[in-house]
Design goal:
47 residues; single chain; 83% helix; 0% strand; mainly alpha
Length: 47
């Protein structure tokens, strides 16, 4: 779980530093994946 988050954050940072219009969709996609993983993690942690 933590590795997934680290990998996505790394990808997101690379895309954010590479101000290319083409990457906007990818940034959104990765942000949503991170949100999903974090929500799952919080749910799992509380159980």
């Amino acid at each position: 779980m933590k590795k997934d988050i680290e990998k996505l954050r790394e990808e997101l940072n690379i895309l954010l530093n590479d101000n290319d219009r083409y990457n906007d969709g990818k940034i959104l996609e990765i942000s949503q994946k991170l949100d999903t993983i974090i929500c799952e993690y919080i749910k799992y942690k509380d159980e």
